[in-house]
Amino acid sequence: MNKKFDTVAGIAFLLIGILFFVESQKISDSAYGSSVGPKIFPMGLGIILTALSIRLLYETFKIKTEDTVKEKLQYKKFFIIFGSAILYAFLLEKIGYVVSTFLFLLIAFQTVERGKIIYSIIISTVFSVGVYYMFSELLGGSLPGFPLF
Amino acid sequence: MDTLQFLADGFAIAFQWHNLLFALVGVIIGTAVGVLPGIGPMSGVALLIPVTATMTSGMPTGAAAASSIILLAGVYYGAMYGGSTTSILLNTPGESSSVVTTLDGYQMAQQGRAGAALAISAIGSFVAGIISLIGLVLLAEPLSNVAIKFGPAEYFSLMLLGLAAVSGLAGKSMTKAIMMTVFGLMLGTIGIDAVSGIARFTYDQPILFSGLEFLTIAVGLFALGEVIKTILEKDEETGSIAKINRILPTKQDMKDSSVPIVRGSLLGFFIGVLPGAGATLASFFSYTTEKKFSKNPESFGKGNIAGVAGPESANNAASGGAMIPLLTLGIPGSGTTAILMGALIMYNIQPGPLLFDEHPEVAWGLIASMFIGNLMLLVLNMPLVRVFAKIIQTPKKYLLPMIIAISFFGVYAVQYTTFDLYLLLGCGVLGYLLSKNDFPVAPLVLALVLGPMIENNMRRALTISNGDFSIFVTKPLSLIFIVAAAAWLIVPLLLKLKGRKIIINEED
Question: pTM score, two decimals?
């Protein structure tokens, strides 16, 4: 169990719970022909989550600090792939499905493991073109295929 | 007999050529999903929802729903088959329900009996699939006849029971599990309220009016979360694959495993019917039961074939049993069935007692297709087990980015907004962080699916009672459900206080 994460998560969920409760008060209470409006359920959830978060924080503080085993995480790879995924989402509608998917796959393949660039290019091409044609030609779906210049 | 007539109609649907194809594709993908460590049945099913949605887009709603649920359910029980393959050959379970299979399965492989172990687990899974289907056929009608008499108060309490069961058994900390459930319910309230038409928590963002799409969140939390985990954490070296010499089990193997298979199937089925207790729990229970009944319990863990046959039958039977609460009551009992339910709702088909009346083609078509699917799995798995074992060697390099690309495609093809892609990525990170720190994500998804229904039933019940909350405890059935829900949460706590170890249900 990671004490630090639990504390942060506990506080975060506590804030979400309170926020949910406060914001639910703004929901109009009118309910046609019913005594129970759209407000009650979210309000109740806010209260329960707040209570549970306090309980989690209490549980977390009770645990004595244990020495955490430091894991080596591959942050660099993750951030490159995640960054390119965000870029992929951003560019998908702008430069089209085929090009953006090809670029994303190529970058991601090479990030996970360097080398064999020819294979990477072939697989990226087959995947992006293949999915696009399968989907929009054979199945009649719609995807932004190519750049709209 | 009405049931037989319905079942015959179901077979007529399942034998349509495209549904046969869907079942075949489903079980093949399911086996692959089961074999690949890292992708569990939950992410497999979630990833395929958008694909099936587009594949069936030209059909009328009922038929489209039947076809896609046939495929998705195929992935679910196919994964139970596939999971055993890696447990036996590599000592790494493909998903959590095959963990116990490693104990004896890998030992058998070491002794050169890998083929027999694989074959027995395939046969056991097949028998279990059939037994659980018979149970499903027998129980479906009576249960849905009872459930049809439920009013909103009973439904509310029953769903509460479902949520309590899943939260009570998921993960190490119950506080965290309930927090996740409540958080899921909260996410479900975002959007325009179905009863009053009032926008809640949308802050005038048109994109939020229809609520957060369940599919995006499920794919993000499960599939993407697992991909991120694999990218971040250096994967352990995969061992060498055991050789498969002879596939057919000997007569002695068959004799030794026939009783465990039947026992495991029955046990697994009943555990599967219980909400919250899924395939993982079923396989654990079956293993301990077999050990108890065995004449020489010390041989367990050293390659006893009963230790493979029992659990493998149990986890498959559990996946069949889990269909019962989903189809008849409309209450999913596990993460994967919650996703299946979300898929049905996407087609505007509400699982529950009315399903058998309103959409018999979906309910009975699915049941019949599971018979066929199980047969396909048996036929496929015996000769092709070597091929499936090869899938493990798919380089991670290509697999991981492709899963991201498939989830992007899936989400975008259904939603057509980049907002959902960002939401997907956000959920991926969230899913990784949460499940890494023992916050189970399955209850979140379940709550997200059930949330709007719980709220509507609660409000309908309260409208009937004029705002009096006692309606939930004065109606006898509703009271029973509420007491059961409370027991589900309190009993494990009491056991913990007594210092007893409780088996928890990991993702399944």
Answer: 0.86
